[in-house]
Amino acid sequence: MPGMVSTQFTRDNLADKLRAHGINPTHQRIEIAFALFSRHEHLSADQVMAIVNERHSETSKATVYNTLNLFLEKKLIREVIVDPNKVFYDPNTEPHYHLYDLQSGRLTDIDASDVRVTGLPALPSGMVTEGMDIIIRVRPSDAAH
Amino acid sequence: MPGMVSTQFTRDNLADKLRAHGINPTHQRIEIAFALFSRHEHLSADQVMAIVNERHSETSKATVYNTLNLFLEKKLIREVIVDPNKVFYDPNTEPHYHLYDLQSGRLTDIDASDVRVTGLPALPSGMVTEGMDIIIRVRPSDAAH
DNA sequence: GTTTGAATTAGACAGAGTCCAATTCGTAAC
DNA sequence: GTTACGAATTGGACTCTGTCTAATTCAAAC
C-alpha cells in the first residue's frame, strides 16, 4: 500500500485498536486513547484528564485511572517511572529506552534496535524477564551541581 | 591490608562516614545510617522508620524524610524508583543495576562491572550524563498473567 | 549555667491514586 | 419504542506517601 499514512490516528481506527486488544471501546476510552496516541508524548494521569476535559468536563478521575490501568493490563500502553511522585504513560510499546532531563523533567525516547546490553548475569531459575527499563538521567553541562 | 574487614559498620565509623560527607552526625542520623548500612538492603522510608523506632519511638517521620533527603543530596545513598508508590533507598553507591521481582517486590543488585551497553545514540549537545539506571523486571515463570 | 543556631518534633496539610455504592449507558430482546 | 440487564462511569470519601511549619529541644562554645 504505497503512500499509506499509518501514523494517523482517528477515533474510528482507535476503536478498532481497542477491540483488537480486547477492550470494549466506550466514548471515554476512545477519548483517552486519542489523547495518548494523537500526541506522541509521555503523559501523566492528570495531564490526560486535563486534555480529555478541555472543552467541558466529561470524564471523571476514577475513569481516567481505571482506563489507564486497563490499557496497561492489555498492553496497549506502557508505564514509565522516573519521578517518585508521578507516573508517565507511554503510547509507544515498541522496545525503547528513555532519556530523562532532570532539569526540565522532559522524557525522550531512545530507539532500542541498536542498543545491546551484554554481561548481565543469568536470571535466577524459575524467573522470566517481563521487561527491561533503561533510563539515562542527563542535565545541562553548565548547571551548577 | 590482608584480613581487613571493611564491611563492618559501627555507629562510630558511621559517624566518621557522615562527617566525611559533610553531615553533622546526630543521634538520629547515625541510627538511620546504621539501619541502612548494617543491612545490605533496599529500604523504603517507612521501613527505615520502623527499624529505627523498634525499641521505643525515638525518631519522627519528618526527621526520617529530612535525613534520607540529606543523605541523597550528599551522595551517601542512592534512590531507586521501581514502584510508582514507593521509593527505595540504596546504601550501595557503587555502579550497579537492579533486578526487580514483580511478584514479591524484592529488589536485588546486579554488579555493573561486567555490563556493557552499546549502541546508544550521542547525547544532545550541552548535556552530560548524571547516571544510568537499568531495571530488569522479572516474575516467576509459572505465574498466571 | 547561658547563649545560640542547628536539629528535631507533632501534627496539619498536599497530591496521587483507590475504593465503593449509586447512577447511567448501551445493547439486545421483545 | 420499551424493557431489562450487565458493564461502565461517577462523585466523593478515603488511604498513603511525603512536605511544611511553628514550636521545642539539643549540644557545643563560652
Strand content of chain A: 25-35%
**How would you spell out the order of helices and strands of chain A?**
HHEHHEEEEEE
Q: Which strand order does the major sheet of chain A show?
A: 1-3-2
The interface involving the most residues is between: A-B, 38 and 38 residues
Overall shape of chain A: it is globular
The number of helical segments of chain A is: 4
- Structural category of chain A is alpha+beta
Overall pLDDT of chain A: 89
By oligomeric state, this entry counts as: homodimer
Number of strands of chain A: 7
- Estimate the helix proportion of chain A, in percent: 25-40%
Q: Could you name the ranges of chain A where pLDDT drops below 50 across 5 or more consecutive residues?
A: none
Biggest sheet layout of chain A: 3 strands, antiparallel
Radius of gyration of chain A: 18 Å
| Distance between the first and last residues' Cα of chain A | 53 Å
